[in-house]
Input
Amino acid sequence: MKRMPAVSGQFYPGTASGLSRALFELTREVEAPEPAIGVVSPHAGYVYSGAVAGEVFSSVRVPGRAVIFCPNHTGIGEDAAIMSRGVWRMPWGDVPIDEKLAARLEAACPLLREDASAHSREHAIEVQLPFLHRFRPDVRIVPVALGRLSLEECRDLGEGVADAIAGDPELPLLVASSDMSHYVPDAVARKKDRLAIDRMLALDPEGLFETVRTERISMCGVMPSTVVLFAARRLGATSARLIRYATSGDVSRDFEQVVGYAGLAFR
Output
C-alpha cells in the first residue's frame, strides 16, 4: 500500500531539492540533542510553523522509529485510524511503515482500527515526515489519525501504546501533531495557548483535556497531545520543556486572526 502526498508543493516544497533547502533553513545541527519520549509539533505550512517544528526536531534525538498521532481534519474514517502496512511517498522517496511495531500497537490497543482512508487526504502527519527524515533518513513510522475521543479513550490508547513499547531497547519517538488556537486575535491566542501549554509542562493530560474544553481553546491536536502525554507519563517522563512558541502573526503581521504553534518535548 502506497500513501501518496496530499499537500506536497502546498504546505512544503514539492521537490526533493527545494525541500532540502527549506529544511536547511528551518533546522540546525545540535551537538548533543536531548533524548525525549514524546514531542508536540505544529503542522501548518512551513512558512508559518516550520521554524517551530524545525526547532523541535533539531532539539531532540530522533530514533529509528516514530509513532505519529494527528487530528483527523477531514472527518474521513475511523476515530482511531492506524495504517499498519505500506509506505508514505514523499519528494525524496518512500517512508516505510514499521509493520511489526504497528501490529504490536494494534494488539495492545483495541481502540485502533485499520483505516487508510483516514490518512489519504490528512496533512498533519505528512508535514512531520521531512523533519524526521532530516535527522534520521532511515526512520520508520506508525501513523495514527484521531477523531473525537473521550478522556478515557485517550488514556486507554496512550497507556496501551506505552505498555506495548516499554520493553524496547530504543523507544520510538511519540509525536503529537498539533496546532494551537485558531483564528483569534494574537493576544487571545497567546493567553489561551499558555493555559494549555502549562498543563502539558505539568505532564497533566487530564488537565490539558479539561482546560481545552472549558476554556474553548481551538487546539486541533488536543487528542493526540493528550494521548502522547498519557503514554509519556506511563513510560516514566518526569519533565517537559517548551521549546518554542509562535503565531502566524509573527510571519503575516496580521495579528487579528492568528493560529498558534507550540513545540514541546517530554522526557
